[in-house]
UniProtKB/TrEMBL annotation:
<feature type="active site" description="Charge relay system">
    <location>
        <position position="151"/>
    </location>
</feature>
<feature type="domain" description="Amidase">
    <location>
        <begin position="22"/>
        <end position="463"/>
    </location>
</feature>
<dbReference type="Pfam" id="PF01425">
    <property type="entry name" value="Amidase"/>
</dbReference>
<dbReference type="InterPro" id="IPR020556">
    <property type="entry name" value="Amidase_CS"/>
</dbReference>
<dbReference type="InterPro" id="IPR004412">
    <property type="entry name" value="GatA"/>
</dbReference>
<dbReference type="InterPro" id="IPR000120">
    <property type="entry name" value="Amidase"/>
</dbReference>
<protein>
    <recommendedName>
        <fullName>Glutamyl-tRNA(Gln) amidotransferase subunit A</fullName>
        <ecNumber>6.3.5.7</ecNumber>
    </recommendedName>
</protein>
<keyword id="KW-0547">Nucleotide-binding</keyword>
<comment type="subunit">
    <text>Heterotrimer of A, B and C subunits.</text>
</comment>
<keyword id="KW-0648">Protein biosynthesis</keyword>
<feature type="active site" description="Charge relay system">
    <location>
        <position position="76"/>
    </location>
</feature>
<feature type="active site" description="Acyl-ester intermediate">
    <location>
        <position position="175"/>
    </location>
</feature>
<comment type="function">
    <text>Allows the formation of correctly charged Gln-tRNA(Gln) through the transamidation of misacylated Glu-tRNA(Gln) in organisms which lack glutaminyl-tRNA synthetase. The reaction takes place in the presence of glutamine and ATP through an activated gamma-phospho-Glu-tRNA(Gln).</text>
</comment>
<dbReference type="InterPro" id="IPR023631">
    <property type="entry name" value="Amidase_dom"/>
</dbReference>
<keyword id="KW-0436">Ligase</keyword>
<dbReference type="InterPro" id="IPR036928">
    <property type="entry name" value="AS_sf"/>
</dbReference>
<keyword id="KW-0067">ATP-binding</keyword>
């Protein structure tokens, strides 16, 4: 059962090949047996998941079930879930149970999905390797000495290890696409505003966006149908109709214009990764696409601009964790200032503190214009680069990450090297565009991700372009050899 995609599970449940209780039990036992190796879950929702599964089976028996009733999923531990702990990978929220439900998880519940549990992540989604989690690193199922990518590393590893058929993730600078690439799965970050951020713990509000992490593009389309849509509780959510993302999946790609930004294939990209991407591009040529080189001239400035804007927003968002209202509180504070200082000092990890310091500095009087305003100006130029290129091509392609999964510990002492893991993903968030990563090859037994970037609200196009590739190749069907 754990080999099946969501689309196949929908069929299997409808044909009564198995019940939701059997399916859920199967996944729970896999998590209980195997997750010691990966550490991809922070919380396993065992009892409640089985209750939900019983209810879903009942709905089906009564003929009241919708398409997804009884299908298990896991949620990144950044989505607030009523009654289940939401830690955001931090000591600060280690025992936090939210009094309300995020819109994304609420939509899954309304569609009668089963919540298997909450997945591990970098603390407050800050990281590219899932090593900053208070709950320990996640190991990559393809090689447990390597990182799964981050920050949605738990979700990616859980899908790759077949501990869940799919999971949710969030992407502020690459956190859906980069772990999807390193773990050999499919992930899509939608256009900013497509999916509600209500109840999703904020890192950098103008960049954060949620999306599905799955085995196939078809599954991503099915789940994006569930997740997308206007929400009056998120003022940045866009009130625009949601198409059925599965509708155009089977359309051929004849005449598709693909752009390859030369800046995304430059120094720093492993030559074997580049080779795998070029082989994938040959598949697109056979599918009828034309490919040309394009330029996104401000690419080199995206990383520094992001590392001003994201920490600036984070420093403001994280000021709510003060030891007073909720979250971690230090023991026996001497006075109010001591309470603030020690609660934050003890509750946050090193990377989060680094971001708060950088962000506070960039926003302080005297530096605001020099750093924050400058970064915002760069952001507009980065956006303009994309707008210009989308006059000439339908989709932009590149490697998702410069290398395959690196070793655990390899970049922990060098934040700048770690930040560079997102060199090809970050500009997309600055521009608010949709982008996707799909498995497109193996280098020394480790997965390579192909990134595709679309114009605003072109999710259906990206999913179609990804699905057609997956019809022609079987990279998305490769499994880590060590898998039981
Ligand atoms: N690695 C990037 C960061 O640490 C992006 C993280 C994310 O997308 N949440 O900021």
């Amino acid at each position: 059962m754990h080999e099946l995609t969501i689309a196949e599970l929908v069929q299997g449940l409808a044909d009564k090949k198995f019940s939701s209780v059997e399916l859920t039990q199967h996944y729970i036992s896999r998590i209980n047996q195997l997750d010691k190796k990966y550490n991809s879950f922070i919380t396993v929702n065992e009892d409640e998941a089985l209750n939900q599964a019983k209810q879903a089976d009942q709905l089906r028996a009564n003929g009241q079930a919708n398409q997804f009733a009884g299908i298990p999923v896991a949620h990144k531990d950044i989505f607030c879930t009523k009654g289940i702990k939401t830690t955001c990978g931090s000591k600060m929220l280690a025992n936090f149970v939210a009094p309300y439900e995020s819109t994304v998880t609420e939509k899954f519940s309304q569609a009668n999905f089963i919540t298997l549990g909450k997945t591990n992540m970098d603390e407050f989604a800050m990281g590219s390797s899932n090593e900053t989690s208070h709950f320990g690193s996640v190991c990559n199922p393809w090689d447990t000495k390597r990182v799964p990518g981050g920050s949605s590393g738990g979700s990616a590893a859980a899908v790759a290890a077949q501990l869940t058929p799919a999971a949710t993730g969030t992407d502020t600078g690459g956190s859906i696409r980069q772990p999807a690439a390193l773990c050999g799965i499919t992930g899509i970050k939608p256009t900013y505003g497509r999916v509600s951020r209500w109840g999703m713990i904020a890192f950098a509000s103008s960049l954060d966006q949620a999306g599905p992490m799955t085995r196939t593009a078809e599954d991503a389309a099915l789940l994006l149908n569930v997740m997308s849509g206007f929400d009056c509780k998120d003022s940045t959510c866009v009130d625009q109709p949601v198409p059925d993302y599965t509708e155009s999946l089977n359309q051929p790609l004849t005449g598709l214009r693909i752009g390859l930004p030369k800046e995304y294939f430059s120094a720093g990209i492993d030559s074997n990764v580049s080779k795998a991407i070029h082989a994938a591009l040959d598949v697109y040529r056979q599918l009828g696409a034309t490919i040309k080189e394009v330029s996104l001239p401000h690419t080199a400035l995206s990383l520094p601009a992001y590392y001003v804007i994201a920490p600036a927003e984070a420093s403001s968002n994280l000021s709510r964790f003060d030891g007073v209202r909720y979250g971690y509180r230090c023991e026996t504070p001497e006075n109010l200032e001591d309470l603030y200082k020690r609660s934050r000092g003890e509750g946050f990890g090193a990377e989060v503190k680094r971001r708060i310091l950088v962000g506070t500095y960039a926003l302080s009087a005297g530096y605001y214009d020099a750093y924050y305003i400058k970064a915002q100006k760069i952001r507009r130029l980065v956006k303009q680069d994309f707008t210009d290129v989308f006059n000439e091509v339908d989709v932009i392609m590149s490697p998702t990450a410069p290398t395959t999964a690196f070793n655990l510990g390899e970049k922990m002492d060098d934040p700048v090297a770690m930040y560079a893991s997102d060199i090809n993903t970050i500009a997309v968030n600055l521009a608010g565009l949709p982008a996707m990563s799909i498995p497109a090859g193996l280098v020394d037994g480790l997965p390579v991700g192909l990134q595709m970037i679309g114009n605003y609200f072109a999710e259906a196009k990206l999913l179609q372009v990804a699905h057609q590739f997956q019809q022609a190749t079987d990279w998305h069907r490769q499994r880590p050899t060590a898998l039981d």
